[in-house]
Amino acid sequence: MEPLITVRNLTKDYQTSRRREGVWGGVVDLVLPRRETLRAVNGVSFDVGAGEMVGYIGANGAGKSTTIKMLTGILTPTSGEVRVGGLTPWRDRTHYTRHIGAVFGQRTQLWWDLAVIESFHLLRKIYEVPESEYRNQLGMLRELLQLDDFLHQPVRKLSLGQRMRCDLAAALLHSPRLLFLDEPTIGLDVVAKESVRRFLEEIRDQHGVTVLLTTHDLGDIQQLCRRIVIIDHGVVVFDGDLADLRTGVGDHVRLTVELREPTPWRILAADTGDLPVRWREQDGLIHVADYSRQDVRSADVIKDVVNARSVQDLRIEEQDIEEIVREIYRRGGTGISDV
Asked: Which residue positions in the chain have pLDDT lower than 50?
């Protein structure tokens, strides 16, 4: 099946000026300005299939926001190709925007002094949504996002979590096939984040909406996305399943063992002496083993400990996704091309 989004060799350059110091330097700049080319996105390529939810992540300045702006038709690329559902975003922008939704962080698309429902009515007219289709879609969104308690309040009186739920509803009123999300949970408390995440899972699984998600909250990525694309200095350094990323880079495992009797860590090190495991002691009863799953299986470590000692409890922790992404940036994108 043809992908919904196709991106090939996408590049975006910006022209900037380097100012000289001092008054005389300012005068010279007026006559002989020094121009520089900044490449924000450098040959990015990827595909996204219909119904996928893909995390597109990177550090500040990595190029992810510039990419999203080109995919939504806000920016025209310097070179490269983008096709979304057969359309080129910046050439077919009027028709294209009827098929996409977007939520950009804390920039609301609702009218600040109007009641939420009035904003929804205005958006229906802007997108020329038939009345019956609008009512059905609004009914579904009201139920999933639990909007009824504040639907008739002015937007300016909503909490951040309430406004984010309304912005998500506004982006989906015209039943788009594709939803772009930029930091949808920024600033939200734990309860509000969980509500937004459950909703995104619902529209993906039950309504087949394709989602491209950019976020600094890697909890969003872990819960919502099976696949992630990581960009660094304008270049894609990883594109694949989250599980593959863990295998290729995030191979660190931590085993916490709680014993029934106080035991020095050196004894446990002797118990697992044939395995490449680093032990450290939290107290006489609790010990932590660090190792790479490429070098040793957790089952072998646990077997040696349980056979030798009386164990109260065990806990295995995979390397956190945030640690994995930091490791990729530390390597400069190297060492994962074969993942």
From this structure: 334-335, 337-339
Burial label, 334 (beta-carbon count in 10 A; 0-12, 13-18, 19+) = exposed
Q: Domain limits at 182? A: 5-246
CB neighbour list of residue 90: distance below 8 Å, 6 or more residues apart: 70, 73, 75, 76, 77
Query: Which one-letter amino acid corresponds to residue 62?
Result: A
Count of the separate structural domains present in the chain = 2
Please name which of 180, 151, 177, 179 lies closest in space to residue 165, comparing C-alpha atoms. 151
Round to whole Å and give the CA distance between 265 and 91: 66
203 shares a domain with 264: no
The answer to whether position 328 is within a domain reads no
CA distance 205 to 155: 29
Residues β-bridged to residue 242: none
Cβ partners under 8 Å of residue 248, min gap 6: 335, 336, 338, 339
Predicted pLDDT at 1: 65
Estimate to the nearest angstrom the gap between the alpha carbon of 115 and the chain centroid.
31
> With contact defined as beta carbons under 8 Å apart, do 289 and 279 qualify?
yes
pTM of the predicted model, to two decimals? 0.75
Residue 229 shares a structural domain with residue 281? no
Q: Which two tokens stand for residue 193?
A: 């984040």
The verdict on residue 95 lying in a domain is yes
Give the pLDDT confidence of 96-125 residue by residue, as tens digits: 998 999 998 667 889 999 999 999 999 999
pLDDT tens sequence across 58-105? 877 888 889 999 999 999 999 999 999 999 999 998 899 989 999 986
Q: What is the pLDDT of residue 331?
A: 63
